[in-house]
Amino acid sequence: FTYLQLPEEARGLEKEVRQIVKEKDEAVRNQEFEKAGELRDKEMDLKTQISALIEKNKEMNKAESEAGDVGALVTEVDIQHIVAAWTGIPVDKVSVDESDRLLKMEETLHKRIIGQDEAVEAISRAIRRARVGLKNPNRPIASFIFSGPTGVGKSELAKTLASYYFGSEEAMIRLDMSEFMERHTVSKLIGSPPGYVGYTEGGQLTEAVRRRPYTVVLFDEIEKAHPDVFNMMLQILEDGRLTDSKGRTVDFKNTLLIMTSNVGSSVIEKGGRRIGFDLDYDEKDSSYNRIKSLVTEELKQYFRPEFLNRLDEMIVFRQLTKLEVKEIADIMLKEVFERLKVKEIELSVTERFRERVVDEGYNPSYGARPLRRAIMRLLEDSMA
């Protein structure tokens, strides 16, 4: 079965499997073997569910074919999916006018991104400006730098944008810039020069964008990159293209560029201790604007002006409050319930249990990251 031949309910599980495989491979590279083992078990479990759904679908198709002699009907939707699969263009761009999606962008992003209203609104405005033709058509759709402490939603927002704007969370290329701290590692982005090891493989960045031109490119912890990386970035931001080691020009005009940074995190953490506890709405807003101003100054001191001036927005993320972490816990629990539904298991939890998850999973310094471990320990382990 190819992806397009899978039953509709199995496609969502297949996406989960691909994401888990990526996380598992990353865990192995980081020598986190216990985590890799847990992810492998989840992968096998999901594959079992997919196989069951395929068998069920085969039986239904067999029953339908026995009930009538009518051949398979190829619909407009089938053709849209095939064109999208062949070209790498998201099916939504093949099928509908994106104006409706752009208008509802904030509403959709807010469902998954909690406590970062300013970030969501700034991104939505920038993307709308780009799509109505108010900016240079030779540049990427939009480019942002996300600054903030760990666990506040920077990477999650990038994944959500990939899913919403390009149709799948897999439409995202993630590059850990700590791997490109040395001068000799920079060539891995565009490919090794002729005669060197890895020349035939292509660049980690250029080859990925060449194969999937409609994508989010996430440069994680950009401040760790070697200065030569920024010279490369200037060409992408200004001209929307990059030449790889084989002399091929790779088009970045249909990409969303996102750079995450921990520069200014200490300022946000200090200011965030007061936000959400003893301030009213206006005071919170004023405090956030003050913090944003301080972080922006730190970014200007750390990064070159010609780099920052080419970005569409410098976005500062708030530190999460306990109330916001509770909302995120509800979203994570809902995902667990959806996975259990496929196994025909109905589950509900009490308010007391939700509060316990939040109490054990909330840490102002780490944001929402400990939440997933708390849910795994308190819920998934006991069910397993």
Automatic annotation (TrEMBL):
Chief location: plastid
InterPro entries, per the entry: AAA+_ATPase, ATPase_AAA_core, Clp_ATPase_C, ClpA/B, ClpA/B_CS2, ClpA_ClpB, P-loop_NTPase, UVR_dom
Record SUPFAM superfamilies: P-loop containing nucleoside triphosphate hydrolases (SSF52540)
Any GO MF annotation of the entry: ATP hydrolysis activity
CC terms in the record's Gene Ontology section: chloroplast
Record keywords: ATP-binding, Chaperone, Chloroplast, Coiled coil, Nucleotide-binding, Plastid, Repeat
Record bears the keyword Nucleotide-binding: yes
GO biological process terms held by the UniProt record: cellular response to heat
Domain UVR span(s) in chain numbering: 14-49
Compartmental location: Plastid, Chloroplast
Coiled coil spans: 10-66
CDD domains the UniProt entry points to: RecA-like_ClpB_Hsp104-like
Protein name: Chaperone protein ClpC chloroplastic-like
